[in-house]
Amino acid sequence: MTNLSVNLNKVALVRNTRHLGIPSMTRAAELCLQSGAAGITLHPRPDARHVRMQDVLDIASVLQRWPGRELNIEGNPFHNLMDCVSQLRERGLPLHQITLVPDSEGQFTSDHGWSLPQDNARLRPIIAQAKAWGLRVSLFMDAQTEPMAQAKALGADRVELYTEPYAAAWGGAEQEAQLQRFAAAAQAALDAGLEVNAGHDLNRDNLAAFARRVPGLLEVSIGHALIADALEMGYAATVQAYLQCLGPAA
Q1: Which domains are assigned to the chain?
Q2: Residues 224-239: pLDDT tens digits?
């Protein structure tokens, strides 16, 4: 079964509109983990418009009480990501996976993967450092077959397929073509010796079909749609609904 990692950025975004500390990031993490989420994803951007460094530390502390569950920190390694990693290491807090994303500092949301081989030289020492720290490294990648062998050669363990093009095509004439494209990219990653994650605009409507068709899908990271659903359904019912999309009966 594909693991579900819940991205809590949008909980932080709501919290940051006031100075009351609600909604609670740690409570959100606990409720999602209690409901069966395999992990928590955080994307702390340099402008701290949603997740802040203290949130990273607090949720890493929560994960200490959940052996077998994972913390995934994603972001641009040339901005603040590696500083977050260093602070977690200094405090002996858990971190299982970093997802390297090539977004700009003021970018509205992530909207493309790394360009290989153009980014190879910049990424190689970052990946080497992360691996020396014992971290699993995932590269945020577009659904293309050709760069997967290069991602493996750089030392990456996984790729996270950027799924917005599939989500945008959902329900339209291009849906099947996009599914085929993502399945081919995932297979190329598997053939290169990589593991496969995916994320961006996946939701309760489009997730089950994606999980059925994309081979070797180990993890999906879902934030915006899941948190929007949780506003109506609550965390527990929402997480379980997404897990049903990922399950054998989906």
Answers
A1: 3-246 (3.20.20.70)
A2: 999 999 999 999 999 9
